[in-house]
Amino acid sequence: MNFFQAFIISVVEGITEFLPISSTGHLVLTSKILSVTQTDFVKTFEIAIQSGAIASVIFLYGRKLLDNKELLKKTMAAFIPTGILGFVLYKFVKNVLLGNVFVTLLSLAIGGLAIIILEKYFKHKDGGGDIKTLTYPSAIFIGLAQSLSMIPGVSRSAATILGAMGVGLNRQTAVEFSFILAIPTMLAATGYDLLKSFKDINSSNVLVLIFGFTVSFIVALAAVKWFLNFVKKYSLTSFGVYRIVLSIIYFLLIK
Prior knowledge:
The chain is mostly helical. 76% of the residues lie in helices and 0% in strands. The protein has one domain (3-254). The chain contains 12 helices and no strands.
């Protein structure tokens, strides 16, 4: 992987990580376009640059999470399902699902359709709840929804936002809780993968990882702020349409 490829992939990661369009799906498809071979290091790079994106959320929400003990406990409750399933299914996800273009395209399309349908459903619901109204069983349900994002193309952001809206949170609160829940989830995923893949990192490619981290951090910071302003005015339906159109375009390009 050269620095140009690392730059493009890191920009894509930063933009897509917290939007409901699947960062993993976009990374798989972007790598396909750039002809980046899915070596062990590239897979590690794609997961490692998530730490740059998560650093942006820690920068924005870390103090709020630490200062609000109730929010911290609910976040950890939501993290438990993903933590357990991620540990159990780690090898299957990385060796079988990650990098599978067909699974990614199918997940993008189905996920897009789910967003459109559920947004129409939630439109007729109250959806006025905030973090204070979130119960622990509801937090665990959001965590279970998040676990679906282990399938490339599903989108962790979409799964958690829709899961949160499903238990009654308003859209803006659901988005913010999705950001906050990303902190333990992505730190655990990135840290575990780096421990498993440490052998693939050496002096010749560590600069690429640092470069990717920095780019994804800056881009993700801007993307998070933009998305928060977006959901104050609009639904997620446009993202659902985008996912379906994107899956069709990629399918036509790669078949």
